[in-house]
Design brief:
single chain; mainly alpha; 3% strand; 135 residues; 59% helix; 2 strands; two-stranded antiparallel sheet; binds zinc ion
Length: 135
């Protein structure tokens, strides 16, 4: 399917949500950075095979294309590819592999720390109370 640059480049649908073009941002520098970070994230989602939605351009899409066509998107569509979504997807793909190894050790570490703190606290209480008992 041919990408329609006049539509949201992510969903290619016309909705009531206004289109945003990073090139029209008020910031003077780094306007194409938005495209770059978007494409970088898309590629990483692709690599993990966890694209949040099907997209209409290939992995050969480059920032210059986006810039030439003043690519626009819905903010809500762009958000599906932001860094925190990517981080979550990464975490999920890691935990699928390591889930059994990681969870028990994490819990054990927390318990050990908690006990340690408890012991120190009890010891302090004893030290504070002892002189009182001696008198
Ligand atoms: Zn969209």
């Amino acid at each position: 399917m041919e990408l329609n640059w006049n539509q949201c480049i992510i969903c290619q649908e016309e909705t009531s949500e206004p289109l945003k073009c990073p090139l029209e941002s008020h910031y003077q520098s780094g306007k194409t950075d938005a495209y770059l970070s978007f494409l970088t994230n898309v590629q990483q989602f692709r690599d993990m095979d966890t694209l949040p939605t099907s997209i209409y351009f290939g992995s050969d899409a480059i920032v210059a294309d986006f810039e030439t066509h003043s690519a626009s998107w819905h903010k809500s569509c762009r958000l599906k590819f932001n860094n925190s979504k990517l981080a979550r997807a990464k975490k999920r793909s890691v935990s699928q592999v390591n889930e059994h190894d990681r969870r028990p050790s994490k819990r054990k570490a927390m318990n050990e720390k908690g006990q340690e703190e408890g012991d120190v606290y009890t010891l302090c209480q004893h030290l504070m109370l002892m002189p009182i008992f001696d008198q």
